[in-house]
Write a structure and sequence with these properties.
Glycerol-3-phosphate dehydrogenase; metal-binding; metal ion binding; Rossmann fold; mainly alpha; 4 strands; disordered N terminus; 3 domains
Amino acid sequence: MAQPPRNGRKEPSEGSLAAPTRHALNWQDESFYDEALIEAELERVFDICHGCRRGFNLCESFPILFDMIDESETGELDSVDKSEYGKVVEACTLCDMCFMTKCPYVPPHPFDLDFPHLMLRARAAEYKKKGAGFAHEQLVKMDRNGKMAKPVAPLANWATKRGNKLTRPLLEKTAGIDREAELPKFHTKTFEDLAKNPPQLNTEAPAHGRKAVIYATCYVDYNKPETGVAALNVLAKNGVETEVVYPACCGMPYLEEGNIAQVAKQAEKVKAELLPWIDKGYDIIALTASCGLMLKMEWPLILPDDPDIKKLAAATKDISEYIVEIAKAEGLAEGLGPIEGGITVHSAC
């Protein structure tokens, strides 16, 4: 007999168009890091992916996996050396595109497949066993690095500029950063600095009365402050009263290296400063999509028993998501102009 819906809502089923179910990360349990269990699960999931191959055009994890299988002795996963699995794990960007848009076997399907979080689990086990190495541990300290670079931003930008034949080969050798990689620029004035002179609020806008905290994110605060200024201008034009708040990085760089415990610490730090604003009636806006992903999706799975984390997740929206919401609910203010030269759309994870 079919079970009645819970709380009056129909439960998602296999093949439905509803958002997939996602399980909390059991990262505080020792079995989460068990290498034999992880290897067995990698083998199970890789074999399913091999039979499906819908992820062929996503991140490099899938082409690497499929090439390894196709070039193996039998053309099946059973003849791929398990020591090669790490290449697939390393290539995953944790963008969640496969889980959210491609994979037909995510929960509630009985295959119960969550490729990105399996890659994260494998990285977490590796991190617990070996750490991430000195250079990588320094690179992920976004707030420390941003604060150190701020007073010497021109010098930092010169040293990290692609094509610098003096510094980039040295950076490649010591930190493992490819000399051809384009690196973010630093600024002597962060977004928080520039936000001290906010634009005039349009009290005639249809959305006037809304209040929002802009969570600056490390990338916008230290590397792309002009993005934050643009967001302030658009929100002010639409009558949204704003406050810029940046307690700390969301922890995405730590997540990518498998340091889940540090992500939890970052979540606690950011939560403590943003929650009082929610209680005052403010929405939370994230200016970087991956940071919004952390607040809305990853933190509640890392700290599933924390009601404040769930409250923060429910109040958080990406900047584009928030503007679309205004357009649908109240309507945008008159007088918005086109951007010169057009724009490039990146479909965010």
